[in-house]
Every structure is written in structure tokens, then in C-alpha cells.
Predict the structure.
Amino acid sequence: MANSASAPLRRTRATGRRSPLASVALLVIGLVATGGAYAAFTSSATAQSTASVEALVNEGEKLFIANCASCHGLSAEGTDNAPTLIGVGAASVDFQVGTGRMPMAASGPQAEVKPVQFTDEQIAALAAYAASLAPGPSIPSAEYLTGEGDVANGAELFRINCAMCHNVAGAGGALTEGKYAPSLQDIDPVHVYEAMVTGPQNMPVFSDLNITPEDKADIISYLAYLDDNPSAGGLNLGSLGPVSEGLFVWIFVLGSIVAITVWLTARSN
């Protein structure tokens, strides 16, 4: 009996076959090991990313307290001299500080463009701090800033939504009470996009429901086209349209006719 019972075991060992349960066990062990390693790696990466963001926010808070809190309040809640920054988002801070408009040198109808007061790293920290206060527009993705969109569509959108203030050539124009729409010539694309989503000064906010990110990219492409292609008609006279053109005709053309008339009259006498 003993010899007959042990015969199948000897045959199994002789053939080298593995039990089906052993294969399943090895597969389970492999999956558990892989999942555990992935979880450990992602947890470590997430922890490092969180720590980096927290460090950036803390640095931004220090910069804010030192440079901005006197007007905007210690908690960015706003004061009689400056609005709240809660909910403005990273895009607004990046635009205002990145163009030198903030901090303002002096009170006035609107913030003037001037040399930037902070480094790129400091601006990023201030933007991260503002973003941590409440949800708001974020800094746009680079894919919308290439200037390689549909120029014709961008020109049409600009004419409909922007030209009444900024001029069809983006040269800017005067508004009421000492305010003005600035020139859009040679402006960093990221600041054009941020202006559309945050509405600085008297500019309206163009959310993604009004103008999609792709359409905003087309507008940026149109402005880039204007920068790369100066006026085909020669002297553009500031691209201010019939006002500057009429003034030029009145002063120089009519003035020249009057001068020639006077000269001819003097010669005849």
C-alpha cells in the first residue's frame, strides 16, 4: 500500500510539474509587491510635491507681508486703499506684479506699467500664496501661448471684443476719468491671456464661457501677427486711425499748401 501511494508523488517530481496553486500564489505576490512599491513611490512623490508647494506659499506670504500688506491687509482681506486679494487667483498676481503695475508707485486712476520689482521666483511665490487663499484663475498653460493659432479667427474675435478700447491694431486708446486702454504691442502672451481671465483695471473678464481657451490663443496669435507685420501702408502714425491721419493732413499737407501760396504771392509782388 505504501509503495502504491507514493508512486504518483514520485511521478510528479520526476516530471517537474508545478501545482496550479503555486502559480496563482506567485502572481498574487508579484501584484502585491508591485502595488506596494508604486504606492510607496507615489506617496513619496506626492509628499515632496506638497512640501514644495507649502514652502512656496510660505515664501509668498512673507513677501506679501513685507511688500503688500500695508495696502491689501495682513490677511489680504483688503482695505480702504486696496481691494481684497482673496479669490483673485495666481493669474491676477502674476499679471499685476509681472508687468510692474504692482506695487504701485503712487495712487492714480489706474496702475501704470513700470520696471518689475521682483524676480520670477518671487512672483511665482506671491502667485502661489494668492492661489492658496481661495480658488481663482490660474496661470495659463503654455499650449495656449505659442502664437500659432488661427490668426483670422483671432482678428475677428479681437475686433468684436477688444478693438473698441484697444484699437483694431492694439495701439490702445483713452477712456474716461484719466483712464486708458494700454497698447498691446510687444506684450508677453501670458500677460495677454491673464488680462482676459482676470479683467484688470477697467477691462471686463472674459471667462472660458465667453471666450474659450482656444479662442484666447487665436487672439494672442493675432497680436503676435501684428507685432511681426508692421503697417503695409508705410508710416502708421501711431495706428490711431483717422484722428492722427486727419491731424497729419491738416498740419502738414494744408500747411504746405498755405506756405507755397504765401511764397508765390511774395514772389509776384
